[in-house]
Design goal:
Elements lengths: L8 E3 H5 L8 E2 L2 E4 L4 E6 L7 E10 L7 E9 L2 E2 L15 E3 L5 E8 L6 E8 L5 E11 L13 E4 L12 H9 L4 E5 L1 E2 L5 E2 L21 H4 L20 H11 L2 E5 L10 H12 L7 E4 L2 H11 L4 E6 L4 H8 L5 E6 L5 H9 L4 E4 L4 H10 L3 E4 L10
Parallel strand pairs: 12-13, 12-21, 13-16, 16-17, 17-18, 18-19, 19-20, 20-21
Antiparallel strand pairs: 1-11, 2-3, 3-11, 4-10, 5-9, 5-11, 6-7, 6-8, 6-10, 14-15
Helix pairs in contact: 2-4
């Protein structure tokens, strides 16, 4: 353990007075030269704890891509790496220092299940250095209080927090709430016997230890499959949740549901929209729930049932003036949910003409998040970044 280190709070003074001769210390600043790493061990840590990093720092290139901050997670002495970050475990989910001159940063990280040790790492690339004028790291077991809606740039958890847990499962949704997200996306689908479930595809092939169409299985049959082991052996035995289980968890924790509607909820499956709306009302989520999807028909049909008691998002890679006019007919609170690679200043300006917010999906690129926020994008659906209330 590092001298002077306290699990609950690690002040900049602890770095400056470690009693170790270090040529990188100059007065009251700490410089990380190009290609080097500062590691701060957090030992032990527990599930759901929040690591908050406050820093005043300057990158000597005055640009992105030079200095990063992230957590390395361990279970005992073994590095805990989930499949989504196996190829680049130190880069995915990393926050960046950027810009000219010293800036004030706040980054937040969450400890997932099974991790009992963590190391905060701050590192630089071979062509950039970082000057730290202030650094404080604290660990708290309190769940961050959600910010009021309409406050600052918003982050939305993608199918739970699937950087650290299997998608569309209760462990992923619970971790998203622990991380302090305001909103969380869940997929919606329906079984042969009419039970709404949280499932991304129309088959279970990609997420369970079996195969088959959700439309050909009853809910009890789906429950026999394991929806966690393919993500990581530690999650073996995780069942598929019903949509009612998911929405009950969110309703009781204050996490706003974002229902990603199946485009198949038409024709003989139109009843799924009726059941969904009834479930939202039953759980007291009317006026506190978002529905989004790629199908104009499905969104229009749901708006005929719910009117302005839901928020509606149109998922797309672009939109026109006609789309703006149509979207405005769904309800009083609408937005475009655009694949982030296709967002342009022109698109944002067009949406603003109709007073329609633009949000981005699925984005795990910190630099693009900052750039798009500067364009006026107001929300980001992501696997990694519980940064609500943090300063860019």
């Amino acid at each position: 353990m590092m001298p002077g280190f306290d699990k609950r709070r690690y002040d900049f003074a602890d770095i400056l007075h470690m009693g170790i001769a270090d040529p990188r210390l100059e007065g009251n600043t700490y410089t990380i030269p190009p290609g080097e790493t500062l590691t701060l061990p957090l030992d032990p840590v527990g599930y759901g704890e929040t690591v908050l990093v406050n820093a005043v720092a300057a990158v000597d290139t005055g640009d992105f891509g030079g200095a990063y901050c992230n957590l390395r997670l361990y279970r005992g002495h073994e590095r805990l790496v989930f499949p989504v970050d196996a190829e680049a475990p130190d880069a995915l989910g990393a926050c960046q220092f950027y810009g000219a001159g010293a800036r004030d940063y706040r980054f937040r990280f969450i400890i997932p299940r099974f991790a009992d040790r963590a190391v905060l790492t701050i590192w630089t690339t071979d062509d950039a250095g970082l000057r730290l004028d202030y650094l404080q790291v604290s660990v708290s077991d309190e769940t961050p209080a959600p910010l009021p809606f309409g406050t600052g740039v918003k982050f939305v958890a993608h199918l739970g927090m699937i950087g650290f847990a299997p998608c569309n499962t209760l462990p992923a949704f619970a971790l998203a709430r622990r991380a302090g997200y305001r909103e969380c996306v869940t997929n919606t689908n329906v079984t042969r016997d009419g039970v709404l479930v949280a499932l991304h595809n129309d088959t279970i092939d990609a997420t369970a230890n079996g195969q088959g169409s959700v439309y050909e299985m009853t809910f009890d049959e789906l429950r026999r499959y394991d929806f966690g082991v393919r993500f990581h052996p530690l999650y073996a035995g995780t069942p598929i949740p019903s949509l009612e289980e998911v929405l009950s968890l969110m309703a009781h924790s204050g996490l706003r549901p974002v229902l990603r509607l199946s485009s198949n909820f038409v024709g003989d499956k139109h009843f799924a929209l009726e059941n969904l709306w009834e479930l939202v009302r039953k759980l007291g989520l009317s006026g506190h729930c978002t529905a989004k999807g790629f199908s104009r028909e499905v969104l229009s049909d749901l708006s005929m049932l719910a009117g302005s008691r839901l928020r509606y998002g149109f998922c797309c890679s672009g939109f026109t003036r006609e789309d703006c006019l149509w979207l405005r007919t769904l309800g009083s609170d609408v937005y475009f949910d655009v694949q982030y690679r296709y967002i342009t200043p022109e698109l944002v300006t067009l949406a603003q003409e109709y007073d329609i917010p633009v949000e981005a999906w699925i984005i795990n690129d910190f630099q693009k998040i900052v750039e798009l926020a500067d364009l006026g994008v107001t929300g980001f659906t992501t696997d990694y970044y519980p940064l609500d209330g943090c300063i860019f």
